[in-house]
Design a protein that fits this description.
This protein is mainly alpha-helical. The chain is built from 10 helices and 3 strands; from the N terminus they run H-H-E-E-H-E-H-H-H-H-H-H-H. A hairpin with a 5-residue loop joins strand 1 and strand 2. The protein starts with a helix and ends in a 5-residue tail after the last helix. The N terminus is likely disordered.
Length: 284
């Protein structure tokens, strides 16, 4: 790590570690990996951040496989420590859903469990020292593919594409259940005829439409902002302290242990609250 910083200025080091391994169409029409942030920006909308997308899929698959194996080998008479841990997580999420969701919907529990544990795993990658996996990938890319200073981010929730993808998925469910339970007329009526009298529907729309659209934006950007800020501080510690970074790294990581589960919990709870509101009708 010290050699890496020695070769780069602090600004170059931080910029490199905040860049993504982006695959897309280059300016000459060929498909390939961007070698600079400028090349990545030129690739446009259809470019893919391979690193964060790959890690998010890997961690999601690991979560599903882990829970599947524990469920398959579960024992009533002699539960293992891992089984007790999984059951405690499931019971915790189930209790939060029971407290905050007032309707019957078999999707909400599994959805919230998936969101909570998946986001928790993605956030936890922020505790890995910033140059361990990134440095190993950079060395491999330079040796095997002659790709110097290849970026490689391992924290998916520091990529707004990931966090906004999760929040937009929740937003689609909000719209779906709102129309399903209230009808298209009821859904549009909530936007146009509340909170002021019906004749003030213009003002109601000016209030309610931004409020509705703010839900996925705030949900995704809150998660992204908190994890991005945490990663940036890790990078500042590494860039400024070099080989002596580990004590400061672990000190900040100890505080960050509160942020990692808290952000997963907040995302899950807001999802429950938003979906509960989507199920509510005037009669209810």
């Amino acid at each position: 790590m010290a050699e890496s910083v020695a070769e780069q200025t602090v600004q170059e080091y931080i910029t490199h570690h905040l860049s993504f391994l982006t695959f897309g169409r280059t300016h000459d029409g060929h498909w390939g990996f961007a070698h600079t942030p400028e090349e990545a920006a030129e690739m446009g909308f259809w470019a893919v951040n391979v690193d964060t997308l790959g890690w998010s899929v890997f961690l999601g698959a690991a979560f599903l496989y882990f829970f599947y194996r524990v469920g398959k080998n579960a024992s009533v008479d002699n539960p293992s420590g891992v089984q007790n841990f999984v059951e405690s997580v499931v019971e915790f999420v189930d209790a939060r859903v029971s407290e905050s969701f007032n309707f019957k919907n078999e999707l909400i529990g599994p959805l919230c469990l998936t969101l909570f544990f998946w986001i928790l795993l993605m956030n936890t990658m922020d505790l890995v020292p910033v140059d361990w996996i990134t440095g190993a990938f950079e060395w491999t890319a330079a040796t095997a593919f002659n790709f110097e200073h290849a970026p490689f981010k391992i924290v998916p929730t520091t990529d707004p594409n990931i966090t906004m993808g999760l929040s937009l998925s929740v937003f689609v469910l909000i719209i779906y259940y709102s129309i399903k339970h209230k009808g298209i007329g009821g859904f549009l009526g909530e936007l146009a005829f509340h909170p002021f009298p019906k004749w003030m529907f213009i003002f109601n729309l000016m209030i309610e439409i931004p409020t509705l659209l703010a839900k996925p934006i705030s949900l995704g950007l809150r998660l992204f902002g908190n994890l991005y800020a945490g990663e940036l501080l890790f990078l500042l510690i590494a860039a400024m302290l070099g080989a002596y970074q580990l004590p400061a790294h672990f000190a900040w990581a100890a505080f960050h242990l509160l942020v990692i589960p808290l952000q997963a919990f907040v995302f899950m709870m807001l999802t429950i609250v938003y979906l509960n509101a989507a199920h509510e009708t005037e009669a209810h």
